[in-house]
Amino acid sequence: MEYVTTAKYIRMSPRKVRLLADSIRGRESNTVLSQLESIHQPVAKLFITTLTSAVANAKLKNADIQSLWVKSIDVMEGPVFKRWHAVSRGMAHSYKKRMAHIRLILSDEKKGEKK
């Protein structure tokens, strides 16, 4: 069975979030949690909260927590804040403050097994 968790409107660019998401995909949830606790990046804290939320969802449905693994992580772009920065000669340069959405799917089925 699959257990889904989403984290929306994260104030970090999706590119930075995807770098860590690629290293987590396809691993067991227990090893991922221990790996994330040793990483000193702000995005690691976001993944810890979303992963613990997905494990809590699995506990509610009486799943075996030891057999959970990360089936997929989707990092999507959220809305963008458009801002302006004043520069010389009365002009302005634009920049974007990006947001991300994370969708994490845990599974208790063995890899490659279909029901």
Automatic annotation (TrEMBL):
Swiss-Prot/TrEMBL GO biological process terms: translation
Keywords for the protein's UniProt record, in alphabetical order: Ribonucleoprotein, Ribosomal protein, RNA-binding, rRNA-binding
Gene Ontology MF: a single term: structural constituent of ribosome
Cellular component terms per the entry's GO annotation: cytosolic large ribosomal subunit
InterPro entries: Ribosomal_uL22, Ribosomal_uL22_bac/chlpt-type, Ribosomal_uL22_bac/org-type, Ribosomal_uL22_sf
Source species, domain of life: Bacteria
Family as reported in the entry's similarity comment: Belongs to the universal ribosomal protein uL22 family.
Subunit structure: Part of the 50S ribosomal subunit.
Described function: This protein binds specifically to 23S rRNA; its binding is stimulated by other ribosomal proteins, e.g., L4, L17, and L20. It is important during the early stages of 50S assembly. It makes multiple contacts with different domains of the 23S rRNA in the assembled 50S subunit and ribosome.
Name of protein: Large ribosomal subunit protein uL22
Source organism of the structure: Candidatus Gottesmanbacteria bacterium RIFCSPLOWO2_01_FULL_43_11b
Gene of this entry: rplV
